[in-house]
Amino acid sequence: IQITTITRKTFFSKHFTMKANTPPPSPDPVNEGGREDLIDIGDIEEVIELDDDTNWQEDAHRDEEDEDEHMEETTDVTDVAALVFSKHKGSVFSCSVSPGGNIAATGGEDDLAYVWDIRTGNVLLTCTGHKDSITCVEFSHDGSLLATGDMSGYIQVWKIAASEKIWEFETGDLSWLTWHHASRVLLAGTAEGEMWMWLVPQGNARTFPSYGINSQCGALLQDGKRSVAGYEDGSLRVFDLKSGQLVQQFSDGLAHTAPIASLAVHKDNTLVISGSLDGTAKLYNTNTGKIIGTLNCEVTPDSEETNAEIDHTVEAVSFCPAMPGIAVTATLAGYITIWDVASQVSRHVITQGCGSSKLLWHPSEPVLFSAGLDGTAHSYDVRSGELLDKYTGHRSSILAFDISKDGSTLITASDDGTARVFKIT
User: CA 167 to CA 385: how far, in whole Å?
Assistant: First the structure.
């Protein structure tokens, strides 16, 4: 691992580099139980056995100082944010909105996470103790807990009401972190290829089979009983949470030819879509273990003047909750494609003009939100591909964003060292 500052390219290709002040990560967990304190499935059987109708639902790292000043002088950016949160002393890599919609959490390059009021910007909790840039922050399904994870693999869980840390653990370099959508079960994937599951705050732990390949991204399926992980070698695997065993593997001829950068699950509890550095997205059936199709997400620009190499990495993928037959892919080249899942034919290709880091949906409408690398969030009607609105104010790439459950508020986290609150009309 090179000792260097995170660059935009390494961030979006999921190949994180550690900061110079980062100590070597320890493979030993902080909790006394360690790897042997495995989850007794009897303890969590109730949270894994879900009802079928359960709801599913990183000073800032800037460019050279003279470049920033030049951008401020030459770029006319209208700030339409209702509030700007500027406590971080570095790039803001992650953000999350609580289920109640009144507080947000952000994590950044300054090794700090903050919990703050989205109406006033007042800090409610400062999460300290991390050893590296915080790349993951996420509220639990009921909003009572917040998980924060840094690049070196140190994870902490905070009780919001008491403003205190209630649990901690240390893995290898962290790639992704997510809560179970109906219980206090936390899942994570690491650069060493391990996948972990913990019951919080009890700390009971389970590890899943490791294949020695970086687990780039992961998600929980709708049934809450299975998880899926995408890997650096282009493969994808599905695990059973109760048994801890591998149940499906998409490798060899079924895999991507380059690392997986993104994945999303369908609410039908069967389909998974993965996006890769190879410029394609693949649709998989997690029940049958078969590939349904491969979507070519490379778009050739109309202009013949561009000689620069185009990055067709499929950085974000998603299924539309309001229109289940629709899937969306977004590339670093700046193209968003709206696909018909059944026919695997593109309905609309949106030329955004910049790459996307993340995709989100309005909770109840077929409205897509895209986090732009130009510092602007965009919203689109997926039925027509029409641009609905732009949310401007940031002066550098949006690295993460989240939307409130009522669809009224958008929180963005940027490479410019700020987080912003936008009101959705």
Answer: 44
User: E strand or H helix at 69, and its extent?
Assistant: helix 65-74
Count other Cβ atoms within 10 Å, centred on residue 380: 22
Give the single-character DSSP code of 240. Answer: E
CA 28, chain centre distance (Å):
25
Question: How many Cα atoms occupy the beta-carbon half-sphere of 57 within 13 Å?
Answer: 20
Q: Looking at 311-364, which runs of residues are DSSP E strands?
A: 314-319, 326-331, 335-340, 345-351, 356-361
The predicted structure's pLDDT at residue 301:
81
d(CA 215, CA 196): 11
Check: CB of residue 269 under 8 Å from CB of residue 221: yes
Global pTM reads 0.84
With tokens 């193209």, the residue in question is 335
Nearest to 399 by CA among 136, 214, 175: 136
Does residue 11 carry a pLDDT above 80?
no
Segment 9-26 shows an average pLDDT of: 37
DSSP state of 35: G
Average pLDDT over residues 174-198: 96
- For residue 405, what are the contacts with CB-CB under 8 A and spacing of at least 6? 57, 97, 99, 101, 363
Name residues whose C-beta falls within 8 Å of residue 218's C-beta, 6 or more positions apart in sequence: 175, 176, 178, 187, 188, 189, 195, 227, 228, 229, 230, 263
Per-residue pLDDT tens digits for 340-349: 999 999 999 9
Residue 86, C-beta contacts closer than 8 angstroms, at least 6 positions apart:
417, 418
The stretch 285-296 carries a mean pLDDT of 96
Distance CA 171, CA 152 (A): 8
Q: Which residues, 6 or more positions from 130, have their beta carbon under 8 angstroms from its beta carbon? A: 111, 112, 113, 148, 150, 154, 156
pLDDT in tens, 38-49: 444 445 555 555
- CA distances to 113, 140, 375 from 157, rounded to whole Å, are 11, 10, 30
Contact 359, 334 (CB under 8 A): no
**CA-closest candidate to residue 113, choices 84, 86, 82, 134:** 134
Nearest to 292 by CA among 277, 266, 318, 273: 273
